[in-house]
Amino acid sequence: MGASADLTGPVTRVVTDPASPCSVVVPVRDDARELRGLLTCLAVQSVRPREVIVVDNASRDETAALARAAGCTVVREERPGILAASSAGYDAARGEIIVRCDADSRPPRHWLAGHLAAHRDTPGTAGAQAGRHGRLLRPRAVVAVTGPGRFALPEPLGLLASLLYVGGYLIAAGAALGHVPLFGTTMSIRRSWWRSVRADLPLGEEPGGGPDVHDDMLLSFSVRHDERVLLRRSVGVGMSPRALRGGTAARTRWRRAVRTLEIGWSRSTPWERWAARVAAAPADRLAGARARRDHRRDDHPAAGSS
Known about the structure:
Elements: E1 22-28, H1 32-42, E2 51-56, H2 63-69, E3 73-76, H3 82-92, E4 97-101, E5 105-106, H4 111-121, E6 129-130, E7 136-137, E8 141-146, E9 149-151, H5 157-177, E10 186-190, H6 191-197, H7 215-220, E11 227-231, E12 237-239, H8 248-267, H9 270-299
Parallel strand pairs: 1-2, 1-4, 2-3, 8-11, 9-12
Antiparallel strand pairs: 4-10, 5-12, 6-7, 8-10
Helix pairs in contact: 1-2
């Protein structure tokens, strides 16, 4: 999957817009072949990004040269590991919405538009609502958006493998977290939120660039009980089936999962996370319903007048 990384051939440039609210971050290590295919997809997005930041995680191939040829901003991160690489990209991003994917992600044309719309149009992200006895009810703030991935395999194998792999991750990680987990293949976060939780990540606690973890799931542990992650099909992407490999790759994924849970649960246990979110649920539902009602009233002002 993906075109050759030979730089003697034409490289598709990604046109950016300095007024765009979104930055794209792609952490990469020795994956120029897949990166080239991703950049081709980013070049035809219906919404232009402010910037595309390729984090070169000490690559030894043509990753950095390819990214520069495509007009991307290249951030060199010598510390090994996806946690250090993705964090460096988020730190460098200037857009308020930071959209993250992998080199082997294959986003459709309206992918960026889908992420922006989910952050912009979701009812319940506005201010507080008055509840009973004058108590202030505030709907959970949407701090992140994520979506599904679809393996590039012959059908129906592609659909079945995607449902088992991605669906299994969403269910298992969701149970551990108490909410929808971030999926690094297609996700977006608010830059203001990233700045507020960055100190939670153990970047300097272990040798190198921090612990060997699944960075998306570890970041999910920073979502507070009064915040939420939206799961939207509109931001789904295609992806390489290499995640299905067994052997050493499977053992590495398992080791990272265990280490991620160890760190996350040392901060808050699953039952503590679930209890906090369940306690906030009634207020969240009421505030969200009122926000949606007000949203409809704003769209149709005559309906609320006599």
